[in-house]
Design a protein that fits this description.
The chain is an alpha+beta fold. The protein has 14 helices and 19 strands. Strands 1-6-17-18-19 form a five-stranded mixed beta sheet. A four-stranded antiparallel beta sheet has the order 3-5-15-9, with no helix packed on it. Strands 2-16 form a two-stranded antiparallel sheet.
Amino acid sequence: MIYRFRSCRSINEYKELLNREVYFSDLQSLNDPMEGVNNIYWNGDKIVWVKFFRVFAEYYLNNTNKNIKQEIKENIKSSFINDIDLKVLIDNIINVKVNQVGLKNILFYVCFILERQDNNVFNNEEFHIASRDKLVSLLVNAIKRDGMKEYLDNLNPEREISNLIPIGSSDFYNRIDKFIEEIIYNVSRKFYVACFTTEYSNSSMWGIYADSHRGVCLMFEDNTMNCYEEEMEYKKIDYKNVIEQFNFFELLVMLKKEDFFSWTSFLDMKSKYYLNELEYFEKQRMFQEKLLDQNLRKLTDWSFEKEYRLILNGFLEPKYNTAENRKIKYNLKSLRGVIFGINTSLQDKKEIFYMILNICQKEKSDHIKLYQAVYSYDDNEIKTIELDGLNKFLKTLI
């Protein structure tokens, strides 16, 4: 048997039980911030770096609070890509490994290069022209003197932030953070999970996932869940303290084909990450397997959960990238029973009983059983008692 803890809100308000649905969460919504996290770094040639800054400029201009006409946006992007300081930056960043802290710091300076392209549009008082040029020159002079690798290796984020960032610049960093989060999601995080366990008796899990024992635990057949769209196999979580490294520019193969070619080629020039169509699909399959494997790993701190997962792949099926499409219906035969928590209210029990009655009458099925979780003082663990009287009464109504 395999189990899924739920709050009564999920059961009653969201109708998960009545609709026989399993909701698949995005990784960012789970309670472990390390879920599906990979150690992404950036190490690219000139073609992909130029495209990277083009994409950043597009994102930045589209997410500013200023109403900028499209013609002006195009002019800003064009002069930005041809800015001498940006060219110096790109020339020095080629084939240098940049981690997320380094990238965030670089993009902060790039914001100033971008904004100084049109002082009529970007006229923030705290970012007057002299301040912008001074901050950009600090970066340019540092990489000219020592090289980008030396600059990044000796980067002290706390010092950089405290000494160089003017008051009122939090919006810069918010936009940078969201941009990095979005581009990482687009190449590595379009997997969605529903979580299960082989252990119903863990008090901590009742507390975390079933509303402090006020919720329920659904009991399913193990091995596979019979869904209307397909048979879905439960995948066992591997608990180890290993986070894989991936080069962002190699992960571009996870983008749609036309976007991949847009990133890796320009006019008649091709990046070293460019692939022909056959190579593109082969490498995409390889990285899908690697990324999927990462979504079946958790840090050893979570090993008490004895977790299994069902996974939806948003790279293969883009419809899953919309939350409403991640409510997957299962066949009633997959559900074997419901365990009420120690603190589940009588009202919630009554509502769930009538839900099950409704489902079973429609399906003409009487195989679902109800159980009560209790604490055994003899064995010092949570156990279940089958609610025989209630189950017999349920059968007479079906």
